[in-house]
Write a structure and sequence with these properties.
The protein contains 4 helices and no strands.
């Protein structure tokens, strides 16, 4: 899956604007955590790439 597909599915489920997932911080609430976790499991990308996409550091992706 691509990061865009994951973001679209999570945004649809949580009924939020997809752009909120890319905002820095936790403004998207648990939706961002779910998107990052799904990306780590399904996208076959490094934590650095996922973090750059979701405006967070690679360490935060691993801690998620």
């Amino acid at each position: 899956m691509t990061l865009e597909e994951i973001d679209a599915a999570v945004a649809r489920h949580y009924r939020i604007d997809r752009q909120r997932l890319a905002e820095h911080g936790r403004r998207a609430g648990p939706a961002k955590g779910v998107a990052v976790e799904l990306a780590a499991r399904l996208a076959d990308l490094s934590g650095r790439v996922i973090g750059a996409h979701d405006s967070m550091g690679a360490t935060a992706v691993g801690a998620n």
